[in-house]
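=== RUN LOG ===
request id: a7f3
mode: sequence -> structure
chains: 1
length: 339
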Amino acid sequence: MRSLQVKQYVKGPDELSIASVPEPSPQPDQYLIQIHAAATNFFDLLQIRGKYQHQPPLPWIAGAEFAGVVLQAPSELPGNRTPKFKAGDRVFGSGQGAFADQIAVNEERLLSVPEQWSFFEAAGLFVTAPTSYGALVHRAGIIAGDYVLIHAAAGGVGLAAVQVAKAFGAKVIATAGTKHKLDIARKYGADYAIDYRQKDWPDQVRGLTPDGRGVDIVYDSVGLLALSMKCTAWNGRLLVVGFAGGEIEKLAVNRILLKNVSVIGIHWGMYSTMEPTTVDTVWRGIYDLIAKGQFKSTCFTDRDFIGLESVDAALKALGARETWGKVVVKIPQDTRSKV
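=== RESULT ===
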C-alpha cells in the first residue's frame, strides 16, 4: 500500500515522500480500516521533525486521525466481546499511521461516522469535538447566559467550542487574527468577533459584557490567560486547552485569588485512561448536538487537498496558519464509498 513513511526525521513536510509498504497485519483484537480521509494536526509537524513528546521508533507512518471503511473486524476481543463494527461500516478515529491507504486500530479508537456526514467531514472530529465539549461542559460547567471568550475561534478546537457554547445557550465572543477568520467564527455562530492583534482587545471584550463585568468562561488554546484575566468576571473559569502561541505562560497566582477565578486544565487524551466513562458521556452529548443540527463539520474548505501527494501542502498550509478549522486530506480509494 501507499503511505507517508518516515525513515528519518525531516526539516519540513516538503521532504516527505510516498513509499510503498506492506499492508498492515492487524492483531486479533484490531480492526483493519481502509482510509478515505485523514486529518492534519500541529503535532504532525513536530513529530516528523522528531520534536514531539511521543515519537514512534523509526520507521513509522505519519498521521493520526482518519475516517474510512472497516475491511476486517477483530477475530478475538477481551472477554469474548462481540465487535461493535463489522466489515463495511463507516468509522472515524485515531491511530498512528493515518497518512496511508490502510490502518490497523483497536476498537476504543473508533466511532461511527454520523449519519449524513462524509468521510471528509468526520475525519477531523475525533480530537477537536470532545476536547471542546469536555472542556466547556464537563470542566467549566457552562450554562445558558454565560459569556464565553474563545481564543483562536477559527481553529479546529475553536470552531468546535463556538458551536458547543452556542448549543448550551451562551453568548460567544470570538477572537482571531484576520478578518477572514473572524468572519468564519461568525459563520459558525459567534455573537461577537474581535481581532486579538489589537492591543485593547481585553477592553473590547469587557465592553461587550453586561455592565462591563467581564466573561464567565475563557477558552484558551493559545496562551493568553494573563491578558484574558483583564476581562474575566468574578467567579470566572479559565480553561487551559493548549499553547498554540508557542510559549507556556506563567501566571501571577495572586490575581487568581483577587479575582476569585478558577484555572482549569483539560487533557482530553488522558480521559480514556483516567475517566473512560466520561468519554462515553461526552460522545453521547456530541452525537446529540449533531442530530439536532447544532454541530457541523469544521473542515477547512477554501482549498482542496486530494491524495497522499497533497499531505505536504496541507501540513505546510497548517503550519503557516493559512487555514481555518480542521485541515483534512481526501484519500480516494477504488470504491464508491461517499467521500
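=== NOTES ===
Residues 203 and 231 are 7 Å apart (CA to CA).
Confidence is low (pLDDT under 50) at residues 335-339.
=== END ===
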